[in-house]
Design goal:
By secondary structure, the protein is α/β, with parallel strands linked by helices. It has one domain: Vaccinia Virus protein VP39 (Rossmann fold, 3-Layer(aba) Sandwich), CATH 3.40.50.150. The strands form 3 sheets. A 7-stranded mixed β-sheet has the order 3-2-1-4-5-11-8. β4, α5 and β5 form a beta-alpha-beta unit. The protein is globular, with a radius of gyration of 19 Å.
Length: 254
Amino acid sequence: MDNEKYYESFDWSSFKDSSSNFKIIAQLIPNDVNSIIDIGCGNGLITNELAKKYKIVGVDRSKAALEFVKGEKITASCDSVPVENQSFDMVLSSELLEHLDASTFEKTVKELKRIAKKYILIGDPNQESLNKGNIQCPKCKTLFHRCYHQQSFSVDKFEKLFPEYKVVDSKTCGINVRIYKDSIAQIKQKLTPAKAWIPYYWAKKGERNAHCPNCDTAFEYDFKFNPIALALDSINVALTKKIPFHMVVLMEKK
């Protein structure tokens, strides 16, 4: 799925989500790091802060987002960044990888390895239950994550994705959110209307606006109570726990 139109028209001046991870990211940067490339930097919330201490370059495919990056920046896709091999002490990627389709994700992981001289630092949702956020376009019936997430991560997954690296440190942060079992989510999506899929305890939070990545339809997603959905949500609550929503992982080349 490609939602480029959405990100170009997004109000980047109001985007502040990445700021919650900045303190953790700053704490994990090793003392021997001088140069950083921030791939998928968005509107530069983290890039601009790190520029006060480090030589940093922001990379994003959205020209609209890059307008807010104050220092050096490159307009490019994360799977093809026009820089030399091992040209930065550390590659930073925050709130990017979870949005990538399988092909782009695979190429991007290779790019991170190619560019990093020594470290890779990644911030992403922590063990996210992707099915929990699924909604459906009322026009073309495409099923997609309400925040356009397509990948889920854990420390173990990073160790498998980056065998050439060792995990030096990892920290969790952000609000606590409940894990949602995929098996329960799949049953709910088969037995109930699409407007009942968002968990009842989550339905009153967040934005209602959605934008279909397939047919480009913009629509407002409303929650509709359903007793079967409520029963399944209650079962999930009994079987699962809450965990911090974000994690930051620092890896060092072996």
